[in-house]
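User: Can you help me understand a structure? I only have the sequence.
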Amino acid sequence: MRGGFTSTRFVLVEPSHPGNVGAAARALKTMGFSRLVLVAPRVAQVQTDPEAIAMASGADDVLANAHVVSTLAEALAGVHWSLALTARSREYGPPPGAPRAMAGEACRLAATGDIALVFGNERTGLSNEDVERCTALAHIPANPAYSSLNLAQAVQVLSYELRMAYLDAGGETASAPGRPAQTVGTLAANDEIERMYVHLENALIALEFLDPANPKKLMSRLRRLFSRSGLEREEVNIIRGIAKRILLLKSREPGEGPS
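Assistant: Let's start by predicting it. Here is the structure, written out as tokens:
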């Protein structure tokens, strides 16, 4: 299958139970996906764990080919749009949306490069830092009286929504329902955006606009602001150029050392 089926990564952050990893692999294969990324799984060599293999139930290839990395930053390298799945409301982080709407957004963007869906640990979910690293946020509107979803079940729900969106678009990307077609520029990759945030933070510290001892969630708010815009590579370069100029001018001020 073409289009989004091959450009979509499913990322499990610190999964605890081998059975869930295997069941997630099975969920992906039933929906036509194959790219599974594991961030610091709690069980070493989880791809060969007997419980994982048993729960994969025929999706052994997806499980065996899962890419294991140490950090979420590594898992999102080269990704230009990522969706964090969370059961908890967050004060900061990217703007939330329903899975079906987010699947439509994914469908619109998947032809321009890799995208990722990010799922947290079975017990603790995603950290605030992990959520802020992603572009968008989704919550599965389960029964409020019993909203606990197994990790693999959550993967199944989202992979189904994505499959429907991709198939509705003929296996290629298209505009989301109700959204007029628009040209998508070269979106910045996650690692490029993270470097921009570091550069911008250093510039704000140099300006004494940001006090590193008392940051007051400034960078979290800026991340939320930029995540709503869908940063393109040229826009990231502009912001980094501004930050570079600020640091250069501050380094030239009397009594100032190099930044």
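Now, to help you interpret it: Residues 171-183 have pLDDT under 50 and may be disordered. Residues 233-252 form the longest helix (20 residues). Let me know which part you'd like to focus on.
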